[in-house]
Structure formats: C-alpha cells, structure tokens
Amino acid sequence: MDLGMDMWKYFGITHADHTVMNPLSLEKTRELVGLLRLPEGGRVLDVACGKAEFLCLVAEAYGVTATGIELSPYTVDAARKNVNKRGLAGSIELLQTDGAEYRPDAPESLDLASCIGASWVFQNHRGTLEALAKMTRPGGLVLTGEPFWRNDPDPEYLKVTGADPNMCGSHAGNAADGVNAGLDLLYTTASSQDDWDHYEGLQWQAAERYAADHPDDPDVKALLGSIRRSRDAYLRWGRNCLGWAMYLFRKP
C-alpha cells in the first residue's frame, strides 16, 4: 500500500481516536482479558502493542509485569501517556524497537506472549505463533489478532486497495495455524460489522479533522487521497468480505 507519506505519521493521524488499534471492540477486548486467568505477578509481552490499552487492562486485572514493543514513534508516545495516566509505569515497560529482534531474559519464561494485528513482524501468522511460543513457558498463553476473509474478495476491491488475496486466509485457517504449531486452541472472538464500522469510521473522521486543522501540511493531499480511497473501498466491498478475530492458545 503506497500511502504517499510517512507510514507511521499516517497511522498516527488516522488512529488518533482509537483506544485499541484493531477492529475488535473495547468491550470484547475486556471480556477476553477476563478469560486469561493469569497468575498474579506473571510476565507478559505484547509485540506491536499500539497505545498499550491491552497491556493496561491486563496489568490492572492481574498485577502482572509487562513489556510492550512498539516501533511507531507516534504510537509509542501515546502508549507512554496511557500507561502514565493509569499509574502503571512501574508495571509496564515500553520499548521502541523492532519486535522481531526482541528476546526475553530467558526463553520459555513468559505467562503470556501476544502480537495483535502485526503478524508482518514475524513474516506471517504461523511465524508469529512459533516465535511467541518460544518465549512462553509450558502452560502459558499465546494470543494473536489476525484478519481473515469472510468470503472471497472482489477482484476490483483487490485492484483498488492493492491488497494481496493471500494476505489472509479463513477464520478456521487462522485457528488451525496454532494447532499445527503445536498449541492448544482455547478461545476465539471475532469482530462484528458494527466493530468494523467503528474502527474504519474513526479513521475517516480523524483524517478529515487533521486535514481541516493543518491545511499547510504538505502531506494532507496524500492523507486524504489514501483515506478516501480506503473509505470508498471499504463501503463498497471490504465491509462484506473483511473479518478479524483474536485467537487464544495454550502452550502444552
């Protein structure tokens, strides 16, 4: 996807109003956190942690020690503000680095390792599951968030967006990736169309507001061009074919 501007700036602007930077609602995210049953004082890692909302919820629920990895300078700044505002700076460490290069102090030591919506960090979903599992203790949890096709995407949608038809598989296929990697599937939760509408709509609104407030920014033309193409493609095709789910596994 050629945005015509700095990628991190683009996502920083378009996700300015998001609490969680994926299509799963905050309510469903909270429900998922309640199902983790992590040990108090456990160790947690979230690769590509966004604004660290998931880590904050986990730390508040279980009193864990957590590490968040985030490469975007815009998003990691928002994550630090979120963590500090919640009084969790002593529990959550945030690192601005490439998640693929991170290693915990000891292998197989984490109670939970997650990567939500950023499987490109480890090449693909299967690679993400395998990388996270190596960092997780036996009996620990592995959590991913991944898109899937609800049905075959329209060729015109792929042409307009530049999306690869192989960028994701099916919901069942995502779940099978973990099983094939030797993990036990515990739970999945998927986004509804309402969740998707909220996720996408917040981006349109944030981009239009930024453009109105920063008319002299040379990136405004590229910003609006990209977000409007994305908006129109979503309304015409993407809303009917795009899926998203979280996948919770246990390492035997």
Question: How would you characterize the overall build of this protein?
Answer:
- The chain has 9 helices and 7 strands; from the N terminus they run H-H-E-H-E-H-E-E-H-E-H-H-E-H-H-E.
- With 252 residues, it is an alpha/beta fold.
- It has a single domain, classed as Vaccinia Virus protein VP39 (Rossmann fold, 3-Layer(aba) Sandwich).
- Strands 3-2-1-4-5-7-6 form a 7-stranded mixed beta sheet, sandwiched between helices.
- The model has no long low-confidence stretch (mean pLDDT 95).
What is the number of domains? 1
By CATH, the architecture is named 3-Layer(aba) Sandwich
Strand content: 15-25%
Helix content: 40-55%
Q: Could you provide a short overview of the structure?
A:
The chain has 252 residues and is of the alpha/beta class. 44% of the residues lie in helices and 20% in strands.
List keywords for this structure.
20% strand, seven-stranded mixed sheet, 44% helix, globular, Rossmann fold, 252 residues, alpha/beta
Show the helix and strand layout.
Blueprint: H1 7-14, H2 26-35, E1 43-47, H3 53-62, E2 65-69, H4 73-85, E3 92-95, E4 110-116, H5 125-135, E5 136-149, H6 155-161, H7 171-180, E6 184-190, H8 193-213, H9 220-241, E7 242-250
Parallel strand pairs: 1-2, 1-4, 2-3, 4-5
Antiparallel strand pairs: 5-7, 6-7
Helix pairs in contact: 2-3, 8-9
